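User: Okay, second chain of the day. Same drill as before: sequence in, structure tokens out.
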Amino acid sequence: MRSKKKILLLGLLLGILVLSGFLVRGYLAYREIRENPAKLIEAIPEGTNIVLGEVRHTAVREGKKEWVLEASSANYSESSRDAVFNDVRVTFFLDNGDVVNLKGQKGTINTASNDMQVTGDVRVEMNEYTLETEIIEYNHQARHIASQSPVHILGGDFELRADAMQVDLATETAFFSGAVEGQIDADTQLQM
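Assistant: Same drill. Structure tokens below.
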């Protein structure tokens, strides 16, 4: 009888040790993924598609936050390295401390380059200026925002329309092309 109790007690202790080992391993894996979410994507088999809800992605270069993307949902395709977002909002952080807010119905980001395209009722806001267009693209390496579709910019005593535009976020310089027309109050000083 005593040997049955010892065997039962030994089996119970062994079971508890094995269960504890699984729990510790699970916690360590969870902590590693929580600290480095890219590990989770690396663990997904090649060619897999993922659907996520309420997404937030931050781009950092040399320890400095460059932009934050938020969306209501995202589809990720490992084969194309593209993530497609719905109801996308992007906040760009400029060197002078200003922020540029971009919103659109859909967005696509190449996860290898961090280049993105936002489409559908695109709205960009900075200080008192608002830009509206249908398609806008962001080149992460160059830190350029560009639109090859017509743009309309409003702000204070200022209005501008152009067939296309490009903005260099690093130098805070905008270039407009095509049929550029606008109205600027004589007392208005334009600043980004």
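Helices lie at 2-35, 38-42.

User: Thanks, on to the next one.
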